[in-house]
Amino acid sequence: MNTRAVVHRDVPPGAEVRVAELYWEAFGRKLGSALGPPDKGRAFIAEHLRHDRGLVALVDGTVAGIAGYQLGGHGLTGGGAGDVLETYGLVRGLPRLALLALLERRPADDELVMDGIAVDAERRGLGIGGMLLREIAAVAAEHGCRRIRLDVIDVNPRARALYERHGFVAVRTERTPFLRELMGFGAVTTMHRPVTAADCAHGREGTR
């Protein structure tokens, strides 16, 4: 069986539900209070995806990994305040908006902010996460960004280790003990990675 992953830019039409499943599997613990229950949260993410703000890794034609990013005021997981209120109602929607605001991250003019990376548990160990990160760096280079920024929570050491292997360096950690019971984590570490000449060369090679 072919287990080689191929990275494509943009979420392909028809893959929204699969992408939402992977995203929820990776970040449902953090997003549950704002977008739960899980079925409703996954449906919300699938409905409001920005296809042009995601990279997908395909294995045997199936989405095995997803990486989202923010550029130009848009990120992978869309949906504004009106969409949240329409889906969850006014009474339940307003506190959810407050929780989502706590997670919001806006990029500076010279940086790309990652919206998260998720790999199918059965496909880990194939280098998919690294492939997605390299392509993210190429996207950043093509848009003239100076660096890539991401946040990683304290209960996800596997992700942090991946980022460190690919050149990300922790620059600050914000303690958020009030979120531990609510969202399952008590600290958020911001990491930076500079965009390099090698990233620019990779971007010029083009995508499949």
Name the features.
208 residues, alpha+beta, Aminopeptidase, seven-stranded mixed β-sheet, 8 helices, 7 strands
Judged by helices, strands and strand pairing, the structural class is: alpha+beta
Low-confidence spans: pLDDT under 50, at least 5 residues?
none
Largest sheet: spatial strand order: 1-2-3-4-5-7-6
Elements, N to C (H/E): EHHEEHHEHEHEHEH
> What integer value in Å does the Rg equal?
17 Å
The structural domain count equals: 1
- Describe the global form: globular
Q: What is the fold named in CATH at topology level?
A: Aminopeptidase
Number of helices: 8
Question: Strand-residue fraction?
Answer: 15-25%
* CATH A-level architecture: 3-Layer(aba) Sandwich
Query: For this structure, what is the CATH homologous superfamily?
Result: Gcn5-related N-acetyltransferase (GNAT)
Task: Please outline what is shown here.
The protein has 208 residues and is α+β, with helices and mostly antiparallel strands.
Written description of the protein model:
By secondary structure, this protein is of the alpha+beta class. It has one domain: Aminopeptidase, CATH 3.40.630.30. The protein contains eight helices and seven strands. It has helices spanning about 15-35, 40-45, 80-90, 90-105, 130-140, 155-165, 180-185, 195-205, and strands spanning about 5-10, 55-60, 60-70, 110-120, 145-155, 170-175, 185-195. It has a seven-stranded mixed beta sheet, sandwiched between helices. Helix 1 (about 15-35) packs across helix 2 and helix 1 crosses helix 4 (about 90-105).
